[in-house]
């Protein structure tokens, strides 16, 4: 009984000590939602998602995890000011990997959805992602080098709005399910000198689908168009390693250059996430993402989120 009381006490201490940081996350979310971009589209437009299959794997390996992160900030007669905010994000990731001799296959499914309730502003979406990535690989005699083929798909679950409008004007719809949606295919060569780092480059194709034609021009299509095909080439680097005990860094940079456009219009997706494990079920993370995609905006898009929550390994 004493151990249980001690565990509950520590849990409450962790949660209450985290409130100031989580309050900052809520404020950052509020600031992001005032921008002219949809937070889900920022992650969707990436051309590739590097998946590494360890050369020690033999046969199948499946992993499935789910998470629930939250943030809360409350103020009452607080001299420094502040906005009462509650946000919750649910996510699930399923990975399936296979290796036999020189052949390897990896499936990665990433689903995420989050909402925030902000005082005097109502409920708004804070995260939204539906992504499926497939990678086929063939190892050369030097196993650090391989040929690969990727087939990826991404869209979102819910509608996204631009809230940077006058108070008397309804928020502007800027995205929804299959508006946009992206199919991408990449065929190339990968170099994996160590388990935690991989670089790859190859020819790529990118298809953009806009189910709602009222949004076509927002994503670089002609008025009334529902589909666009882009041939090009892609380069990417991926890093994932435990830096310290229970502290892991995941970082990637991905580019896509359309052969029919100037190289200055190259899409760049730079993503970083630091994950700290508090125990087997609780973790804290900081995510920082920058994107340049001039089909959507001439400005660099930035996303940063600090969160804490529960993570459960199902498989």
Automatic annotation (TrEMBL):
Keywords: Signal
InterPro entries reported for this sequence: DUF3078
Residues of the signal peptide: 1-23
Entry-linked Pfam families: DUF3078 (PF11276)
UniProt-recorded name of the protein: DUF3078 domain-containing protein
């Amino acid at each position: 009984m004493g151990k249980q009381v001690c565990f509950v006490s520590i849990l409450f201490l962790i949660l209450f000590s985290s409130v100031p940081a989580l309050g900052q996350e809520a404020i950052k979310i509020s600031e992001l939602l005032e921008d002219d971009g949809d937070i889900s589209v920022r992650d969707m437009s990436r051309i590739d998602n590097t998946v590494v299959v360890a050369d020690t794997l033999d046969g199948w390996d499946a992993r499935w995890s789910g998470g629930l992160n939250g943030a809360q900030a409350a103020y009452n007669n607080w001299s420094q000011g502040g906005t009462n905010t509650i946000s919750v994000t649910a996510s699930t990731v399923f990975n399936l990997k296979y290796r036999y001799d020189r052949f390897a296959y990896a499936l990665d499914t990433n689903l995420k959805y989050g909402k925030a309730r902000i005082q005097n502003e109502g409920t708004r979406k804070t995260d939204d992602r539906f992504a499926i990535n497939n990678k086929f690989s063939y190892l050369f005699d030097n196993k650090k080098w391989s040929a690969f083929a990727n087939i990826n798909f991404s869209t979102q679950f819910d509608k996204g709005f631009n809230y940077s409008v006058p108070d008397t004007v309804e928020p502007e719809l800027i995205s929804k399910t299959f508006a946009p949606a992206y199919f991408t295919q990449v065929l190339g060569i990968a170099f994996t000198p160590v388990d935690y780092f991989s670089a790859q480059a190859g020819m790529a194709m990118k298809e953009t689908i806009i189910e709602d034609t009222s949004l076509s021009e927002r994503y670089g299509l002609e008025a009334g168009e529902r589909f666009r095909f882009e041939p090009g080439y892609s380069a990417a680097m991926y890093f994932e390693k435990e830096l310290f005990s229970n502290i892991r860094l995941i970082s990637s940079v991905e580019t896509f250059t359309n052969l029919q456009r100037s190289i200055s219009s190259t899409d760049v997706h730079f993503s970083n996430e630091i994950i700290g494990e508090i125990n087997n079920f609780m973790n804290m993370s900081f995510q920082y993402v920058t994107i340049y995609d001039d089909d959507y905006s001439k400005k660099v898009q930035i996303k940063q989120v600090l969160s804490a929550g529960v993570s459960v390994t199902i498989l």
